[in-house]
Amino acid sequence: MTNPLLFLLAALTLVAIPGPNHLYITTRSIGEGRRAGVASALGVETGTLVHIAAAAAGLSAVVAASATAFGVLRYAGAAYLVFLAYRTLRGRDEFDGPELKPQPLRRVYLDGVLVNVLNPKVVLFFLAFLPQFVDRDAGAVPLQIAVMGVVLALIGLVSDIVYAVAAGSIGAWLRARPVFQRRQRYATGLVYLGLGAAAVFAGPAARRT
User: Fold this and answer.
1) Which of 38-42, 91-95, 124-128 has the lowest mean pLDDT?
2) 20 to 30 A Cα–Cα from 178, which one of 1, 56, 84, 172?
3) Where would you find the membrane-spanning parts of this chain (predicted)?
């Protein structure tokens, strides 16, 4: 790896910039509580590990080079986010009195994994970012990519958990006020729809960069 300190600074800078994963985790934490937010963070970064393994194995380059494979991944990710929006917006039966029943943590975790794995922008990110810090003369390029990816995932996990805990506190305040319950559900569903739309319409532009 060339310039480990430079890589670390770049990784910290990138993670500090709020992105779609932060928005997803924040929304989940506000809607379903701090534990759901943390489970989402763990799921998202597990998805990151899948991308790291794919990048190290060279599969990410194949997906990015194939318009069909990239399109399938992009639309699958968007469809899953729309499904989450639908499940949230139709969730009248998930109300128990004034409060929204949280989803089982296992489901929340798996949602986080799928949301990240089906995000083609993450594929492009690893292809664009990690190779800049690879030292080809040192050999073992897949190992270098894997190590840098794991470091990036760990930094991301810390950031995600901070967002989850902070948003969970906001969510607890809102859940103590029943007047916000229905609005909160609609807001959560609209955020998922927005992320799904971003996955579709920003996909072609992202692929050209």
Assistant:
1) 91-95
2) 84
3) 52-83, 108-130, 150-174, 186-206
